[in-house]
Every structure is written in structure tokens, then in C-alpha cells.
Amino acid sequence: MADIAAAAVANPATGAGSAAEIVFFHEHATIRIPGGPALPENDAEEVLCNARLRLAKTKKGRVLSLGLRTRVTSAKQMLALTYRDGDCRTPGCGRTRFLHAHHVRFWGRGGKTDLDNLILLCATCHRALHRDQFTITALGDQQFEFRTPDGDLIAPAPPISGRADQILRGDILDDAIVPNWGGEPLHLDHAVSVILDSWAPK
Questions:
Q1: Buried-most residue among 25, 53, 82, 165 (CB within 10 A)?
Q2: Which of 7-11, 86-90, 165-169, 181-185 has the highest mean pLDDT?
Q3: Is the pTM of this model over 0.85?
């Protein structure tokens, strides 16, 4: 459900005038679709993150108000995000398809819909973020910091692609792709024991 709602907004072919509007009912501290079950808290937050929707308040089956549309990224902001980020910003991911504009500080909690508070995430990383598998902090000036649930910094991953002008600059040494491995056979039992030792509880 969250993917469908977010994909409708993130799809450049779906303009602001043509995107479907989704209504969610908010009652007894839960969010549900009309005639459907309540969404888990993480799923509800993911849907509310950047879908074009209205939150309707109800009481005893009666609709009290349809509420305002939540703020979504404009087509120009999505274009700017695409130019700035290019792919999923989660360190080590790099996916370029099914990207969502995520409000680092949630819109409903006072977060602004501007480039200092928006970041591109793929659907998988977006879901992982809303399931508290990592956190993102906006540092200002469109800079962001990723951390594990324990608070450890997730270092930015080196780019997996580059541009030809970087090669022509002459910064890369001639032997940069020459390995330091001499062709010795792999000692599988030793490699496995080292990996198992590193996994052992300390």
C-alpha cells in the first residue's frame, strides 16, 4: 500500500493534477483506509511521508472532517532532488529506480518540504528507515548523516560509477588496478575460521 501511494507521487509522468488522492481515516490513534484494517504505525508513517492524501477524522463511524492535503514535493523539487542525489542516498545502496522523496523531519512534525529536509531513498531503504533500521539527520545546507540504531555513524560509501574527466585529470596512478595478490591459492578453511571468529560474541 505504501509503495503504491508513494509511487504515484514519485512518478514524473503523474503530474500534480492527475495523481490520485488517497483518503485515510484517523481514529483511536490508528490510521486505516476506508473499509480496511488499521495500518501498523511504521506503514502509516511511510504512507504519510510523501503521498498525496487527506487524513479524515472520524468518530463512531461518522466522518468529522476530511482535513487538508499533506504537503508533497513539487515536480521542480523532484527534478532538483534527482539532479542532486541521482540515486538512493543510503550509503552503499545506489539504486536508481523506484525512488521516493523522504522528509527527514516528518511533515506532520513541522518538517519543511524543501531541499534541506528532503532526500531520495529507494523503496527498500525507505521502508527500512520507517522500520527504525537506521536514522537520517539533516545537517543543513542539504547535507545528511546516516546512523545505525545504536547511534554509530554509517560512513558514506565511495561512488560505484565515475566520470571520464576524473581519469583524464591524472590523479589516478597507472598501477591503480594492479592487484597486490600474487596468485596464491585460497585457504578456504582459514578464511572461514577468520570470519567465524569475527562473528563470535565478545
A1: 53
A2: 86-90
A3: no
